[in-house]
């Protein structure tokens, strides 16, 4: 039965019932959202731009204005009554009722809110209500007397889209009608920007969110509450300076919501003033309607700009709602997902760009499969064991492997030899296959020879010049192996004629003779003794000491010791006389004060003499 002619009556009755907010007998109005979840969960959850009213007869086969937004399906045993059967007084003169017995009413609707109306009586029972799986059990249909048009259940504000309300009877209940609120675009205060459906704040504004109370640094009570839209707000104080906001939108109307207060604003639509010193006392504590463009004038479909200027007081900005006419039919694709190698994708849903309302669902896009590269042999096959080849997908980099077998006969094998070097081993009697480019026999290994080390460029230090330990080379391959070190020159050179018991002086003990005019001696003089146990002592500070003297055919053994340590005997005999010869050099000493002692042992060398000669000492 066609009922489009009743549309105006339906809407007027719907708005009347919303405003009257009926509560009858023991019946309690139930909201799908619990206390504190959203303050808009109320008999007039939000002033929607359009509300469709559907009675209990709106099944799949019925024809109604806006039927695409709601369809009712009855499961189990239900009875539909007209006026003559007891439906008198119900909406459109009809209702459906059941005694339960596992009966259910399934209401599928598209929108943001649904309100349920029924008939009640003293013998009616309860039912479980579930919206999108969220269950409110034992909603009571019982009242002290028979009543019609009872507002019983409200889903509260839902995200725009398709929702399912399931009513499961637990005894006698009645279904009379439902009201479905059509979609609108809701823009939160935090959606900032300069594009359409974005809020552009000007001047000084503060932001607060329930989850961020530390942001509240002002001297006023916190403006945000659990019941604020999305639990956050922007606010501005006229005492802190100018504050305004602009909001571009495509549509036919716009509504501005705030927290009720003493602020006053000016409102402009497309640059034309629509309200002057408009009070923000909305008489609702949160999410109150502060400005409705419908109160100013009807807007043509298209792009518009709302501007709000703060005149006085503290203004709280909570959300803006837009009724979209879809005259701007530009569409966008959302929820698109590209297919992967092994995972299906999704073509995406088509939506109006300006308000986000879905136009059509997308489709699954089959996985595209792997694209394998040419592969790399990761385990070489041998004559005894198969190998492995690995392929990699150029898209997702997943790998797969295949077995590869050894296939070369080595008919063209070649014998190879390699000489060993200082650093690399060699081999002989090895065989190589040019066909498979592999060594098929390692042959006999010849160990690396190692370097034949040789020191070159050594220079002894003197009293006036540094020396050098020399660089090390390999005599075989001429490779440079390591650098030498500088041998510091003596910081002090002391002649034998400098005598005394102090530091850097020769202290002669026992019988010693001195001579001058010896041309080849250091500074032309020296000391000598052949008296057994005659000695000299030399105090110095340093890390080493050198004793220079003469060698000749009448010289014998001298004993050398440092700081009273173990004595080292050195033969000063030499067939041919030679002056300024390094006879003794100490090992490295700890820096500090030391004493060198040189003793005449009385032992002859290869000749008959036992003389010991002193010429100079270098430190």
Give your account of this protein's structure.
This protein is mostly beta strands and 619 residues long. The chain contains one helix and 54 strands. The strands form 15 sheets. It has a five-stranded mixed sheet with strand order 1-10-7-13-2, covered by helices on one side. A five-stranded antiparallel sheet has the order 3-6-11-8-9, with no helix packed on it. A five-stranded antiparallel sheet has the order 15-18-23-20-21, with no helix packed on it. The longest helix is centred in the N-terminal third of the chain and has 14 residues. The N terminus is likely disordered.
- Stretches where pLDDT is under 50 for at least 5 consecutive residues are 1-28, 33-49, 215-220
The largest beta-sheet arranges its strands as 1-10-7-13-2
**Residues in β-strands, percent:** over 45%
Globally, the shape reads elongated
Instruction: Give the rounded overall mean pLDDT.
Output: 83
Rg calc = 54 Å
Q: Helix segment count?
A: 1
Number of strands: 54
Class derived from helix and strand content: mainly beta
Largest sheet: 5 strands, mixed
What is the helix fraction of residues, given as a range?
under 10%
Q: What is the CA-CA span between the terminal residues?
A: 127 Å
What topology does this entry show?
Elements: H1 7-20, E1 30-31, E2 51-55, E3 70-75, E4 79-81, E5 95-98, E6 104-111, E7 113-120, E8 126-131, E9 134-140, E10 147-154, E11 161-169, E12 173-175, E13 177-181, E14 185-188, E15 199-203, E16 206-209, E17 232-237, E18 243-251, E19 253-258, E20 264-269, E21 272-279, E22 288-292, E23 302-312, E24 314-317, E25 319-323, E26 331-334, E27 345-346, E28 349-352, E29 358-360, E30 364-365, E31 376-379, E32 387-392, E33 399-404, E34 414-418, E35 426-433, E36 438-441, E37 444-446, E38 453-456, E39 467-468, E40 471-474, E41 480-482, E42 486-487, E43 493-495, E44 506-509, E45 513-516, E46 525-529, E47 535-541, E48 546-551, E49 556-562, E50 568-571, E51 578-585, E52 593-604, E53 612-614, E54 616-618
Parallel strand pairs: 1-10
Antiparallel strand pairs: 2-13, 3-6, 4-5, 5-12, 6-11, 7-10, 7-13, 8-9, 8-11, 14-25, 15-18, 16-17, 17-24, 18-23, 19-22, 19-25, 20-21, 20-23, 26-28, 27-30, 28-29, 31-32, 32-33, 34-35, 35-36, 35-37, 38-40, 39-42, 40-41, 43-54, 44-47, 45-46, 46-53, 47-52, 48-51, 48-54, 49-50, 49-52
């Amino acid at each position: 039965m066609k009922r489009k002619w009743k549309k105006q009556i339906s809407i007027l009755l719907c708005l009347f019932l919303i405003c009257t907010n009926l509560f009858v007998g023991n019946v309690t109005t139930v909201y799908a959202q619990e206390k504190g979840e959203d303050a808009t969960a109320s008999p007039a959850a939000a002033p929607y731009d359009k509300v469709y009213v559907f009675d209990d007869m709106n099944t799949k086969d019925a024809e109604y204005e806006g039927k695409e937004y709601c369809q009712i399906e009855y499961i189990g045993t239900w009875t539909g009554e007209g006026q003559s059967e007891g439906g008198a007084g119900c909406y459109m003169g009809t209702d459906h009722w059941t005694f339960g017995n596992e009966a259910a009413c399934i209401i599928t609707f598209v929108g943001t809110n649904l309100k349920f109306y029924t008939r009640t009586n003293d013998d009616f029972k309860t039912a479980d209500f579930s919206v999108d799986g969220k269950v409110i059990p034992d909603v009571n249909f019982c009242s002290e007397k028979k009543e019609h048009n009872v507002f019983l259940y409200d889903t509260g504000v839902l995200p725009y889209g398709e929702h399912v309300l399931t009513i499961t009877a637990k005894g006698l209940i009645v279904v009379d009608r439902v009201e479905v609120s059509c979609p609108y675009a809701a823009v939160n205060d935090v959606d900032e920007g300069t594009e359409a459906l974005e809020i552009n704040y000007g001047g000084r504004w503060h932001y607060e969110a329930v989850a961020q109370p530390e942001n509240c640094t002002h001297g006023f009570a916190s403006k945000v509450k659990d019941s604020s839209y999305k639990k956050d707000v922007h606010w501005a104080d006229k005492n802190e300076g100018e504050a305004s906001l602009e909001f571009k939108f495509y549509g036919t109307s716009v509504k501005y919501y705030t927290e009720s207060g003493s602020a006053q604003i000016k409102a402009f639509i497309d640059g034309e003033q629509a309200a002057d010193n408009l009070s923000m006392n909305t008489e609702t504590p949160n999410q109150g309607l502060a400005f409705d463009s419908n109160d100013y004038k009807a807007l043509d479909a298209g792009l518009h700009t709302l501007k709000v200027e703060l005149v006085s007081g503290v203004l709280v900005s909570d959300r803006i709602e837009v009724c979209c006419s879809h005259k701007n039919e530009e569409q966008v694709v959302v929820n698109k997902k590209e297919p992967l190698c092994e995972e299906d994708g999704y073509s995406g849903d088509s939506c109006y760009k300006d308000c986000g309302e879905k136009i059509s669902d997308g489709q699954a896009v089959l996985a595209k499969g792997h694209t394998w590269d040419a592969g790399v042999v990761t385990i070489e096959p041998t004559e005894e064991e198969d190998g492995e080849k690995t392929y990699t997908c150029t898209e997702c980099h997943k790998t797969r492997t295949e077995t590869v077998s050894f296939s070369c006969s080595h008919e063209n094998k070649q014998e190879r030899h390699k000489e060993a070097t200082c650093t690399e081993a060699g081999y002989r009697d090895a065989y190589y296959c040019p066909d498979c480019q592999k060594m098929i026999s390692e042959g006999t290994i010849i160990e690396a020879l190692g370097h034949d080390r040789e020191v070159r460029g050594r220079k002894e230090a003197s009293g006036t010049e540094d020396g050098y330990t020399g660089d090390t080379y390999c005599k075989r391959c001429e490779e440079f192996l390591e650098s030498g070190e500088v041998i510091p020159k003596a910081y002090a050179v002391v002649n034998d004629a400098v005598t005394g018991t102090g530091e850097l002086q020769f202290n002669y003990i026992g019988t010693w003779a001195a001579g001058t005019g010896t041309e080849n001696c250091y500074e032309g003089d020296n000391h000598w003794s052949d008296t057994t146990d005659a000695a000299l002592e030399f105090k110095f500070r340093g890390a080493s000491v050198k004793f220079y003297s003469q060698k000749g055919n009448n010289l014998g053994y001298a004993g050398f010791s440092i700081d009273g340590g173990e004595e080292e005997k050195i033969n000063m005999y030499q067939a041919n006389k030679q002056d300024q010869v390094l006879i003794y050099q100490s090992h490295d000493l700890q820096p500090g004060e030391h004493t060198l002692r040189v003793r005449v042992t009385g032992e002859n060398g290869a000749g008959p003499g036992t003389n010991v000669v002193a010429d100079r000492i270098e430190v």
